[in-house]
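Fold it.
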Amino acid sequence: MNRFQIGGALICIGCIVLAGFFVACLVMGGAWRFWAIAAPVIVIFLGALGIGFSIGRLMSTTEEAPTASSKTKQKSTASSAS
């Protein structure tokens, strides 16, 4: 097994352990039932906000592509200057 396969096996084992913990918390009831529902919702919500932040940052830092009219102006300016 290479490192990639070992990493995949560890992820599978971690998911099985977390799924068991989740089901156990739902069955136990009480305050654990609340957190079994609230924790995944919080993680998903923060993940969605992180993706939104990443898209916004990318949009705000991307330079505008030159338009066809500005390319024509640059060519005409360069040819008239020669």
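The chain has three helices and no strands.
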